[in-house]
Amino acid sequence: MRRLRPKQVHENDFLALDFLPVCIEIVSYAPPFPKNIWANSKHLNLIGASIEEYKSYSYVMYADDVEKSLWEHRYQAVQEKYRHILERSSIEHYRGGKKTAVETVYTPCEVTIGGGTFMYVMKVHWPIDTVNENEVNTTYMTSLLECSPYPLCFFTTDGHLITCNPAARQVFGKTIWLQSDIFGMGERERRGLNVADMQFSGSFRIERTERRTAYENMMDALTADGATFEVDLPMKKQQDDGTETAWYCRVFAQRQKDPVTGEPIIMVSHQDVTNLRKVEGELGRMQMTEQTNKALMNQDSDVAGSLLTLLGEDWKFLENQQENMQDEMELEEAMEWESRTASGVTLGADNCITQSQKLKGLRLCLDKADDWDFDVFELEKEADGYPLQVLTWHVFQKHNLIDEFNLDRIKLINFLRQVEAGHMENPYHNATHVADVVQSMHCILSKGGLRKFVSRMEVLAGLLAACIHDFEHRGFNNDFLIKTQDDWAIDSNDKSPNESHHLASAWKILRNPEANFIHRMPHAQQVQLRKLVIDMVLATDMAEHMAIVSRLKTDLQKRLENPDDGIEGPPPENLKTLVLQGAIKIADIGHLYAAHHVHVKWSERLEEEMWLQGDVEKARNMKVSFLMDRDKPGVTKSQPGFVDFVVRPLFEVWTACFPEYRVLLDRIETNYQFWKSRETRSGTPESTKSQDQAEANKD
Q: Which end of the chain is less enclosed by CB atoms within 10 A, N or C?
């Protein structure tokens, strides 16, 4: 909040202040108790006291916890940080019995008195009846405002209402008295702007919203005479029947001077621009569609279908292009409809028909993305080898995250392209595996059970974390990186080298202006999103596996199984994070509950990747890690033990907390029996090696 310049008051000014028609006090709120310094005649008459009685007044008798909190806040906010406070309260007569309702402004004040200069607080009380006395000075403004069809208000620079016109009273009600009222702020949003709205039962949370940010930006902008500020804000309007309607309000503010007192004032005008915003939004959408369709014609023919999906365009777009292409080419003979492939082949009508057919196959594949039976290898084929960007865009659209968080569509596409391009052609840790994890995370977030723990922000964070959780993975586990003193291990101080690199590299892409799709989100939301993503990606390190399983059992399962333990109500943030960490771990090993043929394919790919690391270890004369020697049985020979000792404990506590996911444990059991039967036939049980396999599988 903007710091104020303290008012300069000399003791010679007290005589002039004594003639003002408002009550003025000068008080020190320095600990341990406030001390009265001076008050004008208007205030002394109101409380029925002499100046000597006023100065000797003791605050000790009122030193309860609430009053102490108020004193401390006034001291810190006004006397130390040079800010103003506006509140409603009442002043009690010293002789008792009589109370006067007032509106009080607390302002920092530098007072020169008795040869010294001191920092105090000036309190200006506005008794309700004083408002009537001031009406004479505001009649000229009111007469100008009456004829305006737009809500117009005049405020002092500390936010106190001077006057407003009938249009403003009709929109905002007759009780308007703060600038924050006309910004449509609720109680949480205005906390810290007005002491009367605070709850002094401990710490309180200020809700940082678009309206609050706009209000603070306005006050920062209006520091000089003639300065202006304009913003469009979503508002809610109370109807006569008690219902609320949503509308867009264009706020225009200008700093002026009061022609009577010369004091700075702020004029605020409002205009309902709801319909205008709708028209602007529709025009913007149409323009985006037109630009998108033109851009598609310049893309590689191999990814044209994928890009259509990425951009959320009509599935019939290519078909319509096919019908209209001939007419367009006749009208503009010089224009060639082509898509530049790597070999420079032109995309003509035949290719357009082929792309349309491919797009139908891609649509059918994406329609299955809500099911546990999803086959990511089918998506890899239908998306022309770009499964990650296609699927991530699809689930972002499915959850309406782009519109809800006002994400930049074009920059999101750039981000997804760069992330997919950054995945290496490893047998297992590749873009297709990451797409598989994104799909599993989507199902986990969509199929119920987590609603109490997952808000819209957690959904966005969960899908983004899944999208980047293996970015630039090179096919080596953490243990190998640490033993070889790899740069990634050095940079992370041997703490989750892979996961730390995935996060850092992905966020560097996000910092690029061309790929920063969250740039329109409020800063506080960006900070919250980053923290959640970090916590989730770090949780995919298998070294954290048992600790997370233990916390799920002790912290989450206990809470859900014992609702009478006095821990009902909204879950704390650390518990929400724990649930998300569990969810991404469930998603990261999603192939264990995939369809049998998909699961077997992933298992074989994992085995090959582990053998490749073993080959490197042999070439470096290192001890070959467990299950990584291709001359010995690999990971496919030890699946039952891995499931028994590593996987099953996680899924058992997860399904105990969220029974909706019991189907996953059943699907794991089906694949488990397949490996168990192979183990029995080979006569080489491997269950005792599960702990070693867990180490071998560390990311």
A: N
Query: CA end-to-end span of the chain, whole Å?
Result: 45
CB 441 within 8 A of CB 459: no
The CA distance from 150 to 269, in Å, is 7
Task: Say how far apart CA 111 and CA 8 lie, in whole Å.
Answer: 6
Enumerate the H helices of 514-647 as residue ranges: 523-539, 545-551, 558-561, 573-588, 596-619, 639-642
Q: Can you give the length of the chain in residues?
A: 699
Helix (H/G/I), strand (E/B), else coil: 669? helix
Helix (H, G, I), strand (E, B) or coil at 502: helix
Of 401, 402, 403, 380, nearest to 391 by C-alpha is: 380
Q: Residue 149 and residue 65: Cα distance in Å, rounded?
A: 48
CB contact at 8 A, 453 and 489: no
- Catalytic residue, candidates 160, 429, 473, 591: 429
429 is catalytic: yes
Q: CA 638, CA 633: separation in Å to the nearest integer?
A: 8
Distance of CA 263 to the CA centre of its chain: 40
| 0.90 surpassed by pTM | no
Per-residue pLDDT reduced to its tens digit, 258-295: 765 667 888 888 777 777 666 655 555 555 555 555 54
CA pair distance 690, 699, nearest whole angstrom: 16
Instruction: Give the separation between CA 265 and CA 252, rounded to whole angstroms.
Output: 14
